[in-house]
């Protein structure tokens, strides 16, 4: 088990509870899909998981270590192991930086503390070539700026950057929502491939139940800040599904 979330409650200042007694796990190498209507708390959950937002009560363990009250200093090595890929790759990349500089940013911030196994390289150039190769982009992209890439290519760059520190968990928050249907399929296949190759764990958030079904081994459904259903993907059409899950399936 890589992530263990137990009884998490979260509200924003002055708001009602956005997350209500949320519990689930993410297993090593697994993609856990997360679906639910707009505003049900999916992104809030992602932010709490990555300690970008504090929680009110409950616990979140990453590799057996409780992270909800760790100091920033103790959290640092853990942060490196958890990455997030957002919906909009244009907003995630600095327009003034060449692709190679965006890709080097995480490792340079660590100032030699990176502990990499999969990527073995002798120079920055070699590292960038490998990062681009793993997301199936030509090495020539390194010297381009984000605006000189297509949306799908830009999202591959943000994925390359997310895996550059060899994380164990990646939260994918609607990673293909801004892409056309063909690029969506290609990027999802790439992500699935990377999960197997690097033994990554994903929390894959999407409105697209078909994409979640394609990518995930288990699926979690949220409604109004609560987990209403959590099941193996083979059981999606089982009679035991929650009425709300059935409703989501019926509109697909
Ligand atoms: N920083 C914030 N301060 C106050 N309220 C917030 C904040 N961020 C989110 N919310 C509220 O929390 C609720 C859940 O939002 P969240 O973004 O987690 O939902 P979501 O399920 O990810 O939605 P979507 O699918 O539309 O992205 C919403 O009612 C939203 O208005």
UniProtKB/TrEMBL annotation:
Q: Name one Pfam family in it.
A: ABC_tran
Q: Name one GO molecular function term.
A: ATP binding
**SUPFAM superfamilies, per database record:** P-loop containing nucleoside triphosphate hydrolases
Tell me yes or no: is Cytoplasm among this UniProt entry's keywords: no
Annotated GO biological processes are: transmembrane transport
Sorted alphabetically, which keywords does the UniProt record give?
Answer: ATP-binding, Nucleotide-binding, Transport
| PANTHER family associated with the record | TRANSPORT ATP-BINDING PROTEIN
- Recorded protein name is ABC transporter ATP-binding protein
Give all residue intervals belonging to the ABC transporter domain: 3-249
Organism this protein belongs to: Gracilibacillus oryzae
Q: Which InterPro entries match?
A: AAA+_ATPase, ABC_transp_ATP-bind, ABC_transporter-like_ATP-bd, ABC_transporter-like_CS, P-loop_NTPase
